[in-house]
Amino acid sequence: MNDPVAMSRPKKGAAGLTGSWRTFRPVVDREACNACGLCAMYCPDGCINEDHEIDLDYCKGCGICAQECPKKAIKMEREER
Amino acid sequence: MLTVATGNKAVAAAVKAAKPAVVAAYPITPQTEIVEQIAEYVTAGEMDARYIPVESEHSAMTACIGASITGVRSFTATSSHGLLYMHEMLHWAAGARLPIVMANVNRALGPGWNVWAEHTDAFSQRDTGWIQLFVSTVQEAYDTTLMAFRIAENTGILLPVMVNLDGFVLSHIMQSLETVEIGDYIPPMVLPHRIDTGNPAGYGTLTGPGDHFKFRWEIEKAMRNSPAVIADAEEEFAMRFGRKYGPVDEYLCDDADVLIVSMGTLGKEAEVAVDNLRKEGIKAGSLRIRWFRPFPELDISDRDLVVLDRGYSFGFGGVLTDSIKSRYRDSSLFSVVAGLGGQEVTYDDIAEFVRNRRMGEEYWFGVDA
Amino acid sequence: MAEIPKEEYLEKCTTACAGCTSSLTLRYVLKAAGPDTVLVVPACCTSILQGIYPNTSFSVPVYNIAFAAAAACASGMSEAFASMGKKTNVIVYAGDGGTIDIGIQALSGALERGTDFLYICYDNEAYGNTGMQRSGATPMGARTTTTPGGKTDAKKDLDRIVAAHNIPYQATATPAYPKDLYEKVKTALATPGPSFIHILAPCPPGWRIASDMSVTVGKLAVKTGSWVLWERKYGELRISSPSKSAMKKRAPLREYLSVQGRFKGISDSAVNELEQAIEKNIAQLAKEEAGEC
Amino acid sequence: MFEIRIHSRGGQGGVTAARLLAMAAFLDKKHATAAPFYGAERRGAPVTSFVRIDSEPIKIYSQIRSPNLIVVLDASIMDTVDVLQGIQKAGTVLINSPHPVDLPGVKVLTIDLTGIALAVDLVVSGSPILNTPVLGALARMGVISRESAEAAIRDMFSDERNVKAAEAAYKELVL
Which segments constitute the Pyruvate/ketoisovalerate oxidoreductase catalytic domain (chain D) (predicted)? Predict the structure, then answer.
């Protein structure tokens, strides 16, 4: 540690794997999806990429994607751990 | 150049010479003349600084913090309630290791309203991590303000520095002043942890107990390095400009049986008392403390001490007395609380304290029988 | 409208609550601002959600500062960057407590001095970071931990306080309408001098809503007229299109209130007062837009 | 050490007079300090300033107790303030007054500084300026040199009427 003060450096997963916070996981129904992108737009944590793949390491399972999906193509399913 | 100036104008002249990029300040008696003078320098184009006329002292210190973390030199001045209003940010500045320089014109605190000299304002900031220097003449105010930038910005220190001068007694007195061409006495400021959008970092993010502890220790390590750095700044100053300063200002101490220990302008008044006492055959000396934090090593063994305190810790004792007692437990000491709220303390009064000293006791001048 | 950049400046992942609309807001603020940006953050949820030293989930510099101090810190920073000839964006990102209550003095000072910066207040209408105590931004009738019976005072009108400073750019937004938000941040940063954006940020735990409802509730705030989106550039007010549409046929306020646990048991008189405040606000904004005041 | 106490009212320039005097003494190659005793600056309130002049450096900060010279810029102050307090036996009092003033036991000089200021139109915000003319009188008394008085005034003020007024006072004072 050479910094004279606490300087935090950017790091993916700075707060650990927040995917473990989930009770429900989003599951995308590719058939129903029309790739409008609203799920990615509204994801608070930016966990959904352009191909509408969800990064489950970090997805907290808030369910906004499912709620905002106009095609109801995302279902929140109970985590089985 | 030799001229005459008030303590306030001397500080402003030194700040001008130090070329800060940002000055943020709020007026308060008896400091106001400093920031008015700086505003004039800036308006007249004699100083290439951004003057931020903030709406409070809390914001003055915060704006200096915001400026300093980008890596530029910053300055502010305040006094009394202004200093206490920024107290939170004083901790922040030191904790963030920002070499901000501040002049504090020592003044009492209300109630009742009192604009005159007292050291309680600075003493209340004792544990903030600021280096605190106390001066006694217009010349010393100028010289020490210049040194303050060099000390604060030393990469082994990176702590803010407060230059204290007594309200009115020194801030408004006119004395001769020799200004200097500072050349490279204050090297360009290099802040290793300055904000860099090319190499982003989170400053002051949540820091756990173990790490927080480490950074507090870093502050103390810097404080422990500071005596050598301050001494170096003083020696270099003496070499370049011919005026010598040290952690204490000693006057006829070597053969003294009794030392008057004081801070600020009382230290000069005490020298007159020493002269008069010596005429009576009392071997007195004056020891004026210039560095309050870091607190200096004192050569006081086997002498009676008469400590003049211009600030008090209620329920405990005089603040200077406290510092000396805790460092030198065996000291034989007469604690005089005097000069609060600008109470007049003359060289005759000081001589009387020495003549009538009661070792081990405390005496409130003008109140005690 | 320019395409919203794909770059993300929040690393996965923050410690924000699931469904946090402040995180959502920050994504778009930083997309609009780009990498040459410094965020100044006073005590608020964002102080904590960056993560713990030595790591941070933010990939722009963040300067965390004391609660009352954000705008003053930005003042110093902005002037310092200007003195070096740098164009770096200085953005304060502060909660409602740090803006409307303890930080309002520093904010007012910085606005009055013409500081070149953007101040964003993300407003979740209570002290979220300390567990939802009332703030000056808490609306009437809302239950918080310090107004267990529902707040009896009205929400402080921050926007009209800020407006009184006659700054070059001022707007309201909510991340339920991210494109609107993104555009407003872009405009604010392109406007020299002080800019201010007030963002309604629904808070799942604080508002007692399910985490998947925060965007929906944000939309409802706009549709009911409870939150009106507008921007004012150099004194010219324009009501933004989501609110324009909403005003044609406004949804009843009860739709917004009934989905939030914090308004459970709200009295009819409080609802009435909220409705009257909405009518008055909309009427004033409409008049201003029409140039009638 | 020569010690001077100046009595004035806030706004009359007593503090500036003290500073000018110290500056002039400094130009005479002497050591000097000038210190006001005041708190909140209020127009009209009595103000006391102190000047010390010596061939040696001056370490004393406390107020002057037994002045060699007392300057009264506003004679009406004598109704409320004991201006003679502590004056040395051989001390002198210089009073701004158009009329002779008799004070028992001390040497009194009077000069109409207000009249001098008005005569050269040295008036700011409706108040005649007294701090520069008084320097002329003090130069005549030998406290400072005439050249230094003029130089000190020029150092602080660009308006030539100040020098003119000081010159007039120099000539008018009867020792």
Answer: 10-170
Q: Which of A1, A7, A11 is most worth mutating to test chain B (most B CB atoms within 10 A of its CB)? A: A7
Q: Both B173 and B257 in a single domain? A: no
- Element (DSSP H or E) covering residue A7: strand A7-10
Q: For residue C40, how far is the Cα from the chain centroid? A: 15
Asked if B113 is an interface residue toward chain A (Cβ–Cβ < 8 A), one would say no
pLDDT in tens, B280-329: 999 999 999 999 999 999 999 899 999 999 999 999 999 999 999 999 98
DSSP-based three-state secondary structure for D4: strand
Dihedral of CA B86/B90/B92/B93: which sign? Answer: positive
Partners of B103 in the β-ladder: B77, B163
**CA triple B210-B214-B219, angle to 5 deg:** 145
- Give the closest-approach CA distance of C58 to chain A in angstroms: 6
Does residue B105 share a domain with residue B236? Answer: yes
Contacts of C19 (CB under 8 A, 6+ apart): A44, A60, A62, A63, A64, C204, C210, C211, C212, C213, C214
Interchain CB contacts (distance < 8 Å): B and C = 156
Instruction: Kindly list the residues from chain B whose CB atom is less than 8 angstroms away from the CB atom of residue A3.
Output: 192-193
CATH of the domain at A46: 3.30.70.20
The 8-class DSSP code of residue C289 comes to: H
HSE on the CB side for C276, CA within 13 Å?
Answer: 8
Helix, strand and coil percent figures for chain C, each rounded to 5: 40, 15, 40
Residue C97 to residues A27, B99, C68, C103, C126, Cα–Cα distance (Å):
37, 30, 9, 7, 7
Closest Cα in chain A, distance from residue B203 (Å) = 5
Domain residue ranges in chain C: 21-289
Give me the residue spans of the domains in chain D.
Answer: 2-172
State the DSSP H helix or E strand holding residue D5, giving kind and residue range, or none if neither. Answer: strand D2-9
Is B135 an 8 Å CB contact of chain D?
Answer: no
Contacts of B94 (CB under 8 A, 6+ apart): B128, B129, B130, B159, B160, B219
Q: End-to-end distance of chain C based on CA atoms, in angstroms?
A: 30
Q: Could you report the per-residue pLDDT of D96-148, keeping only the tens digit for each?
A: 999 999 998 899 999 999 999 999 999 988 889 999 999 999 999 999 999 99
Question: Could you say which architecture CATH assigns to the domain C21-289?
Answer: 3-Layer(aba) Sandwich (3.40)
| pLDDT > 70? residue B369 | no
SS3 C268: helix
Q: Which CATH number fits domain D2-172: 3.40.920.10, 1.10.510.10, 3.40.50.1220, 3.40.50.280?
A: 3.40.920.10
Token code pair at residue A40: 């990615």
